[in-house]
């Protein structure tokens, strides 16, 4: 019996994840009615619209009147075997629970508490999604003006001396901008991320010349693996901007993607200036300053999608270069490009 009640509570919570105006409200009302063993249950949003289970009762006019009173007073209202209870989420009125039939007052309070908890979880999940979208917008806004200026300057300089190369780089630049700024879904594929990496590195090679050497290798079996959009490109940009550009002489960037059992492992390695491991730890924790938010952003998004045991692993030391490793499941429910 306890298992059945817990299962029903989980079902109610899932149906209310979009609030009291969502598509799962009627199903949630049916579940609450079964738990309480009453004749009718209604759930009202702040507009006063009541969703009933199993159907609208013959005394709906009286019930609607109680709902209006609760929405104005924010207090419990009732008559005979009909009661309306306010639902407060984070101390703000979110709706009303209406119960018709013989039941204990304590059971109605418990049902109301379940509903409030479900609504709180739904709002928290929605806030997390909004935060994730804001982080993605922040990543898109991080295109370096310095890089854009240098790339366009190189392209312009080649228009007369090497028009074919200039045209090729302009197409690469258009691809880079399109991928970085386009309104993608939440997920993409390893193949698309690696294409973006190759485009970016081709442009940087044109800007830096012989100062940049690169190697990109990816195993065919991981090309179709789905992953969050704009996860790999910021890591490569970070390797060039903070690893290779500050160092003297030629620098190397290596990007590899391969399968390890059920995981896809991708590494971005440079032989640049490196950094203190304590600084790398601070960057991943979001305390690295405004020019290093990309790594923390990527790490947080990976952990949100795959769980706390995933995320970025950074291996570095002053003067020893940096290696960033991404490990993700090759197959993850709900992660679809």
UniProtKB/TrEMBL annotation:
GO cellular component, one term: membrane
Top-level taxon of origin: Bacteria
Domain Histidine kinase/HSP90-like ATPase intervals: 223-332
Classification via SUPFAM superfamilies: ATPase domain of HSP90 chaperone/DNA topoisomerase II/histidine kinase
InterPro entries recorded: Bact_2-comp_sensor_kinase, HATPase_C_sf, HATPase_dom, Sig_transdc_His_kin_internal
Keywords carried by this UniProt record: Kinase, Transferase
GO MF: phosphorelay sensor kinase activity
Name this polypeptide is given: Two-component system LytT family sensor kinase
Protein source organism: Actinophytocola oryzae
């Amino acid at each position: 019996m306890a298992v059945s009640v817990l299962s029903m509570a989980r079902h109610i919570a899932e149906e209310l994840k979009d609030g009291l105006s969502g598509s799962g409200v009627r199903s949630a009302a049916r579940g609450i009615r079964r738990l309480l063993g009453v004749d009718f249950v209604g759930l009202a949003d702040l507009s006063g619209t009541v969703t009933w289970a199993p159907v609208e009762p013959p005394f709906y006019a009286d019930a609607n009147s109680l709902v209006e009173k609760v929405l104005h007073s924010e207090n419990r209202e009732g008559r005979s075997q009909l009661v309306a209870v306010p639902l407060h989420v984070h101390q703000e009125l979110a709706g009303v629970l209406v119960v018709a039939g013989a039941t204990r007052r304590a059971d109605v309070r418990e049902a109301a508490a379940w509903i409030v908890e479900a609504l709180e979880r739904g709002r928290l999940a929605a806030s997390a999604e909004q935060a994730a979208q804001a982080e993605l917008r922040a990543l898109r806004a991080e295109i370096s003006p310095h890089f854009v200026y240098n790339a366009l300057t190189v392209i312009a300089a080649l228009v007369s001396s090497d028009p074919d190369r200039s045209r090729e780089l302009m197409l690469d630049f258009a691809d880079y901008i399109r991928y970085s700024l386009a309104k993608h879904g939440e997920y993409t594929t390893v193949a698309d991320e690696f294409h973006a990496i190759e485009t970016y590195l081709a442009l940087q090679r044109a800007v830096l010349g012989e100062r940049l050497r690169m190697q990109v290798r990816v195993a065919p079996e991981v090309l179709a693996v789905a992953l969050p959009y704009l996860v790999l490109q910021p890591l490569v940009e970070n390797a060039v901007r903070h690893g290779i550009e500050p160092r003297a002489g030629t620098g190397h960037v290596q990007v590899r993607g391969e399968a390890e059992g059920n995981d896809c492992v991708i590494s971005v390695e440079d032989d640049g200036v490196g950094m203190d491991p304590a600084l790398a730890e601070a960057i991943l924790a979001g305390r690295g300053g405004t020019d290093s938010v990309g790594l923390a952003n990527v790490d947080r998004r990976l952990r949100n999608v795959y769980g706390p045991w995933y995320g970025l692993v950074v291996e570095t030391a002053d003067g020893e270069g940096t290696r960033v490793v991404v490990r993700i499941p090759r197959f993850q429910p709900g992660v679809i490009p």
